[in-house]
Write a structure and sequence with these properties.
Length: 292
């Protein structure tokens, strides 16, 4: 009988090809291998936010070393000027704009009038927040591969989608993005540190992945977990430093819901504990029914 470890090794085989030219967590190598398996390519790719066209880019290597033409979109004007220095605007399409999720600012609206095939080889979405919503707003464009950022601090079973609002930078969970992908006709082929890579369902069989469920494809053992003791003590497990501010760490003492004296099984409360608990509820929560 096949073990979970063996199944994970077979299903995650693309990770063996992870390598960086300019990507952050090995995406360059995985994307190159995935593209090699596709039966046909048109050598077009799209990336946003593109930054300066090189830093953490998932398309720079394709454009500079593999003959790709790119659509590169960056909202920040300073970064966009750097992007213009990185890539030839005669060969590529460079757009200084924010990609949104309404008819006014969706990707397809921004691309209107540009001679781009609907089935580009790769779409890379990395905008630190509304990634889920901008992909959800894409209807006509059918990229063969999609690389999209997820919030890596969210455990596999959690379905979380941030508010669809400009300026919100919470990100969305891997589970939510996989659900969206399947609705759009895509299957997961690789889960990386903070990017999921999907392929159109019609090509999925080419990748010989026996099980692409998130539990098999992604190890979330180091994501922060919160759980409760029977006495009401709140425990933290995993890496509790803030991923984008690693000098800041969340400590158990800062997330306790009950004062130390009241961290007991309710059946073990003394008469004084019950009185104290009721008064504490009134002071903190405005007199919520305690159940005692």
């Amino acid at each position: 009988m096949q073990t979970l470890k063996e199944l994970q090794e077979q299903s995650r085989w693309l990770l063996k090809h992870a390598s960086n030219v300019t990507s952050q967590f090995g995406e360059d190598g995985v994307i190159a291998k995935a593209l090699d398996l596709l039966p046909e390519r048109n050598h077009w790719c799209i990336e946003f936010g593109a930054w300066d066209g090189k830093k953490y880019s998932n398309t720079y290597n394709l454009i500079t070393a593999h003959g790709y033409r790119g659509v590169l979109i960056e909202t920040d004007p300073v970064r966009f000027r750097d992007l213009q220095q990185t890539h030839d605007a005669q060969k590529n399409i460079l757009i200084n704009a924010a990609v949104g999720f309404t008819e006014r600012d969706s990707l397809e609206t921004l691309l209107r009038g540009h001679p781009i095939p609907d089935d580009v080889d790769l779409l890379s979405i990395d905008i630190d927040g509304n990634d889920y919503h901008v992909w959800g707003a894409i209807n006509k464009l059918r990229p063969k591969l999609v690389a999209i950022e997820f919030n890596p601090t969210i455990a596999n079973p959690v379905r979380f989608v941030q508010q669809p609002r400009l300026g919100v930078t919470h990100g969305s969970s891997a589970a939510a993005l996989i659900e969206l992908a399947r609705e759009k006709g895509y299957e997961l082929i690789c889960a990386m540190t903070c990017n999921l890579i999907f392929v159109e369902s019609c090509y999925f069989a080419l990748f010989n992945i026996p099980d692409n469920s998130l539990a098999v494809m992604r190890d979330d053992s180091e994501t922060p977990h919160l759980f409760f003791g029977y006495d009401g003590h709140v425990f933290l497990h995993g890496d509790t430093s803030l991923t984008w501010n690693p000098s800041v760490t969340l400590h158990e003492s800062s997330v306790q819901a009950l004062p130390r004296r009241l961290q007991k099984l309710p059946g073990n409360y003394t008469g004084f504990d019950r009185w104290l608990f009721k008064w504490w509820l009134r002071l903190r929560w405005g007199g919520i029914n305690s159940g005692f």
